[in-house]
Amino acid sequence: MRTTQLTQCIQKEEDEDELFQYEFDNQSEPQQNLQTPDFQATKQNEVHSQISHQAQIEQTDQYGFKSQINLKHYKDRKTLNARVEKWRQMINEFDKQNIQLIKERTRKGIPDGLRILAWPLLANIKKAKETANTIQKTSKYSDFLTKNEFKFEHQIRLDVHRTFPDNINFQVSILQIQDQTVLSESLVNVLKALSEAIPDMGYCQGLNFLTAALIMVTNDENVRILNNFEAFWILYRLMTHYNLTAKYKDPNSLYREFYILDNLIQQYHPITSKILKRHNIDLFYFTTEWFITLFSTALPINLFYRVFEIFLVEGEKTIFRCALAIIHYKEQKLIQLNDFENGLQYLRSNEDLLHLDSNQFINLMLSKYKFSKTTIQQLDQKYKKNQK
Fold first, then answer.
1. Are 310 and 106 in contact (CB under 8 A)?
2. Of 89, 180, 206, 313, whose CA is between 20 and 30 Å from 11?
3. Does residue 84 sit within a domain?
4. Is 227 contained in some domain?
């Protein structure tokens, strides 16, 4: 069955890629009270900004962002068509698929128009509904939207205006004219439902970007919104099975991620590690947003989708691999900077990530950073030990 397959380990000593479920140690005390930066209020989303270039065609892509389609896009059409057919067949008989085949094809990328069908299967939203039925005594998305008043609705609606500010679906000018676009109202409803389904987490900044990225899934030129209930159940699954809840409930839990990433940077990028320490640049200052939004604000939207669907299949290691890959692309320029202010400003900027080739980034992420689940577990245990 699908549930069994997706949760089985892929037994490879060098590169295990099973879903890694970590139970956070709520008893450990943080080093200090970590306050998550309000990156939304002042955020200028550089990833999806307009860039003029003679060799590129400026247009709004199917997700609502300004983008450029170059000639390579058309050369890849034949490969894409073959991939579409393979995914159609696999989706139709998903329960019978081998986890290794799912992993391999997910790494190559899911065609845009089929993500709406593949993501619920990869996330196993059926299992999410079973969990909700046990805890909340319901498995219906609509049941979480029956209240007349919602505790977090005001903040959620404020944050809609701050979500991907250069995306036409969330721009303030459009919202003022049309009150609410279809996508923005979907964003509000899904976030309201999630805050009711997981009341001890409620609503936290950063969730709006991840949720918006999910509901922007489309099919070619014809906008095809991921059904609200499916976006909701994918998010619910992320919170309950992939253990993302802790990041939003208590920002101090991010110290664990900082600790693990710091050790991995020392191993794979020792030069960057020395620069960060020399200039007293703490990972908190520039990676908090990466972890809170799962890179949805740092990477071009299509690349984010590639990373996200790999994360659905392979779990937590994907987050650290992606962070290390970003460090890789920033390292050379970082070496040239010689002070805290310039170094931090560059690390927090996403401008140099605008034109990343998705295939090259994914190949680098998966081939250069080959560490096992055991590595993450060992670093996790060291972190816990240090907190005692």
1. yes
2. 89
3. no
4. no
pLDDT of residue 325: 98
The CATH number assigned to the domain holding 259 equals: 1.10.472.80
Structure-block tokens of residue 33: 């009270």
pLDDT at 53 over 50: no
Residue with tokens 């927090």: 348
DSSP string, 264-322: HHHHH-HHHHHHHHHTT--THHHHHHHHHHTTTTTS-HHHHHHHHHHHHHH-THHHHHH
Q: Is 164 left (phi over 0), alpha (psi -120 to 50) or beta?
A: left
Tell me how far apart the alpha carbons of residues 135 and 130 are, in angstroms, rounded to a whole number. 9
333-343: pLDDT as tens digits: 999 998 899 99
Report the amino acid identity of residue 125. Answer: I
Question: 238, 244 in Cβ contact below 8 A?
Answer: yes
What's the mean pLDDT when you consider all of the chain?
Answer: 80
The two three-digit tokens of residue 357, written as one number: 């080739």
Interacting residues of 105 by C-beta distance below 8 A, sequence separation 6+: 83, 86, 87, 90
The CA–CA distances, whole Å, from 366 to 209, 318, 322, 324, 371 equal: 25, 8, 9, 10, 10
pTM of the model: 0.79
Two tokens at 119? 């993501």
Give the SS3 label for residue 55: coil
User: Tens digits of per-residue pLDDT, 106-117?
Assistant: 999 999 889 989
By residue range, what is the domain housing residue 305?
A: 250-388
| Closest to 282 (Cα-Cα) out of 24, 37, 40, 23 | 37
Q: How many domains does the chain have?
A: 1
Candidates 35, 32, 29; CA nearest to 386 is 29
Task: Return the structure tokens found at 4.
Answer: 């069994």
- Is residue 126 domain-resident? no
For the beta carbon of residue 25, count every other beta carbon within 10 angstroms.
Answer: 14
User: What is the pLDDT averaged over residues 346-359?
Assistant: 93
Contact 36, 292 (CB under 8 A): yes
| Whole-angstrom distance, CA of residue 302 vs CA of residue 111 | 10
